[in-house]
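Changelog note: in this version the structure field was regenerated for every chain. One regenerated record is shown below for reference.
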Amino acid sequence: MATNVHKSRYRKLVFWAWFLTLDLIMFGAFVRLTDSGLGCPDWPGCYGNLSPIGASTNIHSALEAMPYGPVSFTKAWIEMVHRYIGAILGLMIIGIAYMAWRWRSAINHKATLATVTLIAVCIQGAFGAWTVTHKLMPIIVTSHLIGGMVILSLMTWLAAREKTHQPVPVIAHKWLIWWVVGLTLLFIQIGLGGWVSTNYAALACMDFPTCHGKWIPEMDFNNGFSAIRELGLLPSGELIPQQALTAIHWTHRNFAFVVVLYMVFIAWKIRNTPGLSGPAKLIIALLIAQFITGLTTIFFQWPLLIAVMHNGGAAGLVLASVTLIVRIGRITPAKGVEK
């Protein structure tokens, strides 16, 4: 009886933490897209206080000095709510790691994955602090985004192990490496998308399918993808040129075609496979939605709701792809059964 209770509690905590991770990624996109990343320009508090309420004097002074600057009461609350949710998620993952070790015989899984997830969330917390202390440096903010997707992948892996599904036929094992490559391509595209967002290059090309009326516009890849530099500046301290922003946008836009064609192909191939049908069809639907929201951001000049949905679609593709990999990875080809 105690074994079942421990396993049930562990499962519930894993699923709640998985859900909160997805929510936190969506809210993180909202923070970034509303320019609220420096709403409280210190860390972990807000001007040394636990909430913007205690920092009202400092925020008011910052508003008077820069009425349209990065600090406002709204932005401060957006930033701090994001930190509060992140702290709650961190505590939940600590609980998952503890339970995975304490009740590993009842849970019937090794505690390694839970431990790796805990380490990942600690690293992610450090990048969250550096995002603020380094004043939204693009490489730090993009790394923070990738870190969030890594944690989502790990939480999806943890959750997928706890969820039952229709048995997957052994023949599907041949698609495992295809999906690992697909997830890798997806992470590269997410990184490129983060680089577009953190460099404010979303509107660098206002036409489609061409860019500035050309298939290959004038671009500056060297400066566009220079990693160690401040927001909006080159390593030399000069303002980043339009050609560099164009290179960032154009690369993300065109690599999207590679990712979409590859993932639609492999998802279509397994769309009717038992145990894999649901995630595969979800991936096809999300890819179509990503294409539509991507175009909408260009033609409607980056509306906030659509931009957040575009980030959410990327997260959905990650969790569906990881789910497929976990399910296919359970198959033991030699025996023709799932582990």
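Spot check on this record: DSSP finds eleven helices and two strands in the chain. The beta strands are 331-332, 337-338.
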